[in-house]
Amino acid sequence: MHFPPISALRAFEASARHLSFTRAAQELNVTQSAVSHQIRHLEDLWGIRVFVRQARRLTLTDGGRALLPVVRDFFEGMAGALERLHADEMRGALRVSALHSFSIRWLVPRLPAFSERYPDIDVWISTSDDLTDFSSADVDVAIRLGPGQYPGLHATLLLRENVYPVCSSEFFERWGAPATAADLLRYPLLIRHHQHMTTTWSQWFDAAGIAGVSLSRGVRFPDTNMALQAALAGQGVVLARSGHVGDDLAAGRLVRLLDVVCPANQSYFLVCPEENRDLGKITAFRDWLIEEATRARAVYDRWEG
User: For the segment 162-179, what is each residue's pLDDT rounded down to a tens digit?
Assistant: First the structure.
């Protein structure tokens, strides 16, 4: 005997509960003829009639009454198993690899909100600026800065940013505000080594209309976080990304200089293996990150407008 399709079982259960093909069709959001067709298909497969069809009345046959609790048990058992599996997916460790500076400046301050929403998911953070090899690394998802092209992986855009010069409020008091971008060349500019992943001072000056700037002098730092710490300590002006300086700008610890809008040349993406994109913990983390990034971008737009 062939097992009937799920759609036929649903049509049978709904029709038996309502004793009406019309109301069953309304519940299942299909036509009455579709429900009637499914019931006939089921009866043909089983070789028995499950309903007695009369002019304005539908009743179960003895066979229909015998099979109804079996079908209901099937649906209830399936629903319970799926709920348990979903609950298991929303529990335990979620291993996240993220860039060091992004973790410190953006992700970690926001994590309590995620833990409050999903108390059974434990976020384990590791930091690396390298691409993650999911076949060998003990990582579920990665937050990466790049163009968004990750062959064989599922990538979700999280955050686009602008870059602009910032300095500490104490430095601003001592040096004052530059009137033009060219004036900024007289200031001590803090520089990052290996800027292939970030917008450079030369690119920012190009956006400000000053071409060909090449900075041969100035203190250099290996990562964004260290350069920002130097700026906070009053050592000079750093070229910063929106997401790295939001809290410091809001608190007045940093001051934005000039109003040149220069989009960052890379964006933040959440990356995971394609086959894991719909896992419960990953979906929850992705949706939460998108909410936080949307909220953050709205704040950045107010500063940068």
Answer: 999 999 999 999 999 999
